[in-house]
Specification:
300 residues; 10-stranded mixed beta sheet
Length: 300
């Protein structure tokens, strides 16, 4: 039977990459999550002896989707990944132990997923760290359930210009926000302004995977572990390069939107403290409180 033509199936090989058997430069890559009593299920191409590697003109891109009870939105996310025209994508799904039919959707596309696992976790950043451990590509992107690549050509657009990605540690772009009655393109901000908070959407970022294996997400953070990673990367001299294109589509009303003040407080904890920084965050929090009060008044 012919292998379906997806971004994740065009360069399969039965030869297992060495990174699964031995650490590379002190970094470990898991072929699968170790077996334990809490594991519910797993599957994918790797368990069938099918792998992929980076090619000279086509670096392997690892895309990770983290999901928990996302049966209503996961399929669209999966299709936005496997239908990419870029033809060297490694796809990993980390499920937190869903009970709503999510695994039925995962199994429907198992022939196009490199590895998937379902087991309880300690929160979204713990699940994302598992994705980092499992990734074997040169680059990693997190496209979680309910989020999508902007179009089927976006990875081709980014990687067709080697000068854009050469030597970079982080590549980031713009994103589209979907509201109930409209959409809005949000331009990424400047790295120099990271002290003010997140300047780009995490779904619109690709990170050098080796760097991410060395610096995983802080699972003690509830909402700002990704911001902390990018802030520390910038402070430590990582080359973070902007690409002038819209990479992802996300929905409004996420946790960082609903709990806006909590997000800002976590950003404030992360950044270096100076008088101007403290004043900025104090006024920003006051502004959010006033905005929330106005919205409540108008609803009444």
């Amino acid at each position: 039977m012919k292998t379906p033509d997806y971004s994740t199936t065009r360069h399969l090989t039965p030869e297992k990459p060495a990174c699964f058997d031995t650490s590379q430069a002190g970094l470990t890559t898991l072929q699968k999550i170790p077996d334990h009593d809490g594991k519910i299920a797993e599957g994918g191409l790797r368990l069938q002896g099918q792998f992929k590697v980076s090619l000279n003109e086509k670096p392997l891109i690892t895309v990770v989707t983290v999901v928990y009870n996302g049966a209503d939105c996961l399929e669209g996310t999966i299709k936005s990944v496997i239908e990419q025209r870029y033809d060297n994508v490694e796809y990993i799904i980390v499920d937190g132990g869903s009970t709503d039919g999510t695994l039925d959707i995962v199994r429907k596309y198992e022939h196009a997923i490199d590895y998937w696992v379902s087991e309880p976790d300690k929160g979204i950043y713990d699940a994302m760290n598992k994705g980092i451990d499992l990734g074997s590509g040169q680059w990693i992107n997190f496209m979680n359930a309910g989020d999508y690549f902007f179009d089927i050509d976006i990875l081709c657009k980014i990687f067709r210009n080697s000068a854009v990605v050469s030597g970079a540690d982080v590549i980031y772009g713009d994103h589209e926000v979907r509201y109930p009655n409209k959409t809005k393109i949000v331009k990424a901000g400047r790295i120099e302004k990271l002290w003010k908070g997140s300047q780009f959407c995490h779904q619109s970022v690709l990170v050098n995977l080796n760097q991410h294996k060395k610096n995983k997400f802080n699972i003690c953070k509830k909402m700002a572990a990704d911001f902390e990673f990018f802030y520390e990367s910038s402070r430590n001299g990582s080359l973070m390069r902007h690409v002038a294109c819209v990479i992802s589509k996300i929905s409004s009303g996420g946790v960082s939107d609903v709990r806006r003040i909590d997000s800002i407080l976590e950003w404030w904890i992360v950044v270096d403290k100076k008088t101007v920084v403290n004043l900025f965050y104090i006024f920003r929090i006051i502004g959010e409180m006033l905005k929330g009060g106005v919205k409540k008044y108008l609803r009444k």
